[in-house]
Specification:
alpha+beta; Nuclear Transport Factor 2, Chain: A; two-stranded antiparallel sheet; 3 helices; 5 strands; Sheath_initiator
Length: 132
Amino acid sequence: MSFPFETDGQVSAEEVIKVPKEYGINLDTGKFTGKIVEGVEAIKIWIYNALKTSRYKYNIFSWDYGSEIEDLIGHAYTQEYLEMEAKRMVEDCLMMNQYITGISDFNVKSEYDKLSISFTANTLFGEVRIDV
């Protein structure tokens, strides 16, 4: 008889990768839908929430959660600097999520009081297009 926590060294894929779940949000209105979403849709909701949450502002979140993107709004940065810094900030925000492997097709458009960012998030469950 073996100790209850001993394994033979093999781990199934289900034990390694758990399907993420989040409360559903209508991304146009920001309101809860009352449903629970899974997989790539849950990752999309997590990305939305993480990018919309200001880092260091709320004590309920760790200092690793959230973004600093709002610091770029309202400044006369060059387009090159804006793209470079926005991409760094988005990667810094998202790469703490174990399901996100990277981002691609990154675009930034800036007006004085508005910053629009779009990219593709590459995840363990597939790609998801994000427009914020």
